[in-house]
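Re: the 436-residue chain
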Amino acid sequence: MPPSRGAQLSVILTTGLRVGDEERQILHVDLDAFYASVEARDDPKLRGRPVIVGGHSRRGVVLAASYEVRPFGVRSAMSMVEARRRAPDAIVVPPRFHAYAEASEAVFAIFRAVTPEVEPLSLDEAFLDVTRSRTLFGSGETIARAIRARIAEEVGLPASAGIAAAKFVAKIASDLAKPNGQLVVPQEETQRFLAVLPVARLWGVGPKTEARLSALGLRTLGDVAKARLEWLEAHLGDGGRHFWLLSQGIDDRSVEPDREAKSIGSEDTFEHDVADRERLLSSIHSQALRVARRLRAGGVRARTIVLKLKSADFRLTTRRVSLPEATDDGQAIYAAAELLLGDPRSVGPVRLTGVSAMNLEAEPRQLSLLDPGGQKKQALNRTLDRITDRFGSAAIVTADLVPGAEDEDPVLRGRAGGSRLDQAPKPRPKANKPPR
């Protein structure tokens, strides 16, 4: 027999949107038009203008679109050809991934100052469980407002937030709060809040499933919520139960904090294919220094360095080397990556480079008395990190990353991010022969 309405409601009462005796409080925080906002922050001439962040018009896609260009129909993931057709007067800027990574690191530090329960979804958004943080910082609404204020003041970027008892509802709330706003959905108001929304808002509903639901007469979440569970399962299989639970605001998945990192990396896609070894090394150098800073910030060192190259025809080549001892020093990582690069003619023109550090281990608590040079390098790196944290990534850069060198090619322009003078001798580790 089909379950009664009372039996269906009992599911709601037993799905666990509470922690102990407390109602869960989940935040979804999302930076608004992230890449475009970073560009406007760093270049005042772009503020209030229609801005597209994207690659070469022949093959690139829109990575971010400012709110000023969205009325023209420009959206993320659209081809640059189509975006330029729709908004011919828009300002197109190449991506600066180092700047986005730095901004993301600063934002996530703010998140973790409030709660250790942070689940990153991408560079610019995360779920936070602040249930246990309320005794220190106030309600979820108060915490969200404080986080957004800190992001605006310390990072210079706008952010939106949704506050609810379930992840699904919090995500929808933050979407509706954009730009630069926040929306609270009390648990007792959840079903009323969801009822009027189109079924496309359900996780897992794409154009084909939306058309199928519409053919069944289900156009809003309220329609799905009113349907009998047995009937939905008969027509939609396991998806029927999934959609029905979400339509009720039932999402008992917990916020899952970062698992222990297995690697730390940095990569960039070039605006134009690059064959010149010196230009490739400049990009690789910047990436190595960024990786080193992240290693030090995480209190870990790496024993294995990996170089990733993607050729113009999208062939992927990876090369790795094991170091004599673990390191968090940028120049040591760069020396290993330089050795791995070898002769780039074996790969051909390159569209992407990446440097990763693997086989991570905790930084030793005490410095070795047998390696005074190592102590000096670590002290210098810590000093340079503090300078960069205070004055930005361009405060100190290596000679191959100075603006004059980068201005020769827009591919490398602005890629000094995270760079610092990690002064260390360049060890020449014995590498495995690179694959051909």
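The chain has 16 helices and 14 strands.
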